[in-house]
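Throughout our pipeline, every protein is held as a single compact record rather than as scattered files. The record that follows is passed on verbatim for readers who wish to inspect the format:
___
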Amino acid sequence: MKENHSITGLALGAGGARGLVHIGVLKALEEHGIKIDLISGSSVGSVIGAMYASTLDAGWVETRFRDFINSDLYKSLGLDRLKANNGQEDSFFQSITRPVKEMISFKIVNDRLGLLKTKRLEKVVQFLLPVDDFRDLKIPFKCVAVDLHTGKDVIFSSGSLTHALTASSAIPGYMQPVPQNGKLLVDGGISMPYPISILKEMGAEMTIAVDVNIRKFQYLDSPTLFKIMSRVEQVTSNRINELMKDDADFTIQPRTGDLFWTEFDRIDELVANGYESVCNNLEKIQFKYRKQKRFIKLFKNMMKNK
């Protein structure tokens, strides 16, 4: 690494399908010569971050994610059934079967730790990644999960990527928590919507965060268990973001359409918005990038002359 090179870290945030904007961000940074040396991620940001860290090819990341969305594995997750309804009234048959569905749902909530078993999420991660060990990544990468027993963050930087990303992406209520040595791990976005502090611990001299949280809430029409849980997470994330936003040297906030977290089929729109967000802020990002490089060069020259 050149002496005057500023070590740049990228923090990719949590947000379910809204995190697909990360792909567009990576494409734009890559095309405009802004080199990423370190990556941290929470939830979907951890998955896309690991995909990029393993290839350094944003085009590959996009292609592979599209392959996943068109796969039987994606269809088996049933995300389409968790979308907001279209506002139409229930049919007669839907209305008479609703009590049975509610009874089944109540039993699931009381007897299971999540709708989908850990193995299902592991298969998704394995489908998306070309490697399964942190040692095989091309640049340093870390991701975060949260231990429900202690409320403390668990940072992954070695070992199995499948295990780390599964824990970091285990959305409470939908995915079952991931056990690990007496811990019960869930989605890292709970405590770190975008993990800037991790980048600084990794040695980043310039930090860029990508915030994909919902910024304008819509009226919560026909509330369901999952809508309520999602809204609670969104409000909490927004509050945490307000406290964290000044920690990054630059924060990118792509247009996400405030989509529900399950709408991965909107990939075209989201990737384009992520790309656009970098292009719209390119001069500001490049200014900070060059300024930081000059500062690092000056600092290292001063240290040499001591």
